[in-house]
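Q: What does the predicted 3D structure of Methionine biosynthesis protein MetW look like?
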Amino acid sequence: MPTVSAASAGLIPVDAGPVATALRPDHAVIGQWIAPGSRVLDLGCGDGALMAWLQAARGCTGYGVEIDDEAVLSCVRRGVDVVQRDIEAGLGMFGHDQFDVVVLSMAIQATHQTEKVLREMSQVGSEGIVSFPNFGHWYHAWSILRGRMPVSREMPYEWFNTPNLHLATVRDFEDFLRRLGLVITGRAFLADGEPVGWLPALRATQAIYRFRRSR
């Protein structure tokens, strides 16, 4: 996936603070949504790039959760506090509303127990943010019509080696959140790192949602 600087993407103000590394496009949107000083839990945090930026530019505190050994080492090198753990093993070590925001970026499609993960996110955090590849993008439909499973920048795997288990369209995900009793508070859609406003369900390659428990 291409990287862009948060400022040059126009998604985060240029004076938002020090940006040590470029942010992935979905991370740039997520970074804009998170208030300065927030307590953040980043699930499946990868190399810790988002959490490192939030600490440096937003004064946020919190943890990453990651299972991959190399990614955990990258987090440590970036100065990110990280818990090495499978997120599907549960978040019981964290308290109710311990965090202002819980993030799950470009990882939900690889979870086995997707409903459990979303429910636990909404318990340990006041707000959740999820980004995922939009399976409803026109190219995916076109690939299937040609008799092929789609391979794209957001889903760069063949059918036989993909880690993706639960692919969703924009409508699927919105219905899922409502089924869990979660209220959508924000949406953003991207294609090749650029915002999509018109027909996002068909034109966006990535979808990003923020949500909270119903009151």
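A (community wiki): The structure tokens above were generated from the sequence. The chain has a mean pLDDT of 85. The two ends are 37 Å apart (CA to CA).
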